[in-house]
């Protein structure tokens, strides 16, 4: 087992901050520190709005550039798209954010993976695309079935080895598929690829 992942807490409400801090202390894989020194920052909010999205962007812009996991009291499918586009790599609804799930989301973010609540993921995948909103450069023919399958599992928080096992691919193939997508569309990372694919209705 490697060294614990450093994680900081950002919240406007001191009660939410204290609760999240206590939950993180129960995770032996993590060590809690100041957000400016952390590898991953957990943002805890009641609801998502423009101010909270700015918090995501501001936290990502810290000198250490921490990955961001957002924990919200309420999350709608549109909130997920906005949060991922703002740079978050994990989303949890507060009622589900117990120590094991929060630790899983933090560790996934530290690996540059993306996690979403299963129910929220289903809403996103079932939602029809709205052509009025455009695709930001994606079109229906630009993702193969294999690429869609890999991105669906990435969005569900699975690691490379798990995706390879589920799809009967080698881990190297999975890594190559994700790399090809991010390079082709000039995306920053896995989370960015998932956000754009979901926004375009391609998953």
From TrEMBL:
It holds the Pfam family GerE. The keyword Transcription applies. SMART domains: HTH_LUXR. InterPro entries: Sig_transdc_resp-reg_C-effctor, Tscrpt_reg_LuxR_C. Residues 136-201 form the HTH luxR-type domain. Keywords: DNA-binding, Transcription, Transcription regulation. PANTHER family: DNA-BINDING TRANSCRIPTIONAL ACTIVATOR DEVR_DOSR. This is LuxR C-terminal-related transcriptional regulator.
